[in-house]
Each structure stands twice: as structure tokens, then as C-alpha cells.
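C-alpha cells help. Consider this.
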Amino acid sequence: MGLAFGPFIISMAISCLIMILDFTPPFELKKPAFTLFLLTPIMVFLPLIHPDINGRGIERIIGGIVGLHIGFWPIALVALLWPFVVGVLWLIQTASIWRSSYPPFRIGVWAGMGASTGLAMGKIGVELLGSSFLITLGLFAILFPALHWMMGRLPSDEEE
């Protein structure tokens, strides 16, 4: 699935399942905030999705956590405009990040913003379509890896 859509699909699936199963989070947390706290430790698996040959995976993990939180917490101030802004920035970076060699922290922030976009899209999709949104999610998870050749790949030398 790759670093481009791995965190996005995983966060969207977790967000959908928490909404569909009508799970009540502990400590009176709202469901999106609880999902965010579930996704934060999952960022540790970023090096498994795309290994860093230079051994700087911890920087990518920290960047992923920072990107995830930057993409989520301003929603309280800007409401639904913020996920749209983060999603557009993430898509623009997804189209262009493959052309250059970026530091691992920036790649992590990009992956974290993708996870944050998936979190918001999962919640909105379930609110609008209900459980049938899982079918859309499944098709999405099948379609994008098939189009991986269009997205390109990180440079093999990764001069991070």
C-alpha cells in the first residue's frame, strides 16, 4: 500500500469502525479524539510501511506524530474547513513529494497529515453514508495500490 496511502487507509478504517460500532470511549472523550489517541502509537509502524535505509526512522515517526496532531487539533478552532485544507495540502504533497528527496521528519509530517485526513474523512463518510461507507473504503484500499505506478516512489538513495 505504501507510505502514500497506508496511514490514510488505516486511519480511515479505524475511524469508520469506531463510528459504526458505536464504541463509547473511556474518560468521556469524543470519538475523533479517542481515534487520534489510538492512531498516535500506530505511527511507530511507519518504518514498517516504508523502511528508511539510512536508519533515521525515529525522525519519520516523530514527524508522523507531529503531522497527525497538526492535522487534527486546529479543527476545534476552524471547524470543517481545517480538514479540507489539510487534505488539499496532503494531496498536493502526495503528487510532488516523489520528485525530491526530503528529510525524514518532513516525510513523517506528510504521512501524519495523510492519517489525519483519513481520520476526518472516515468520520464524515460514516456520518453521511453509514455502514455502506466501508464498501467505499474497501474499494479505495484496492484501487489506490493498483495506481501506485502513477504516484511514483521515494528516491532509492533518499538523501535525507
Observations:
- The longest helix spans residues 104-129.
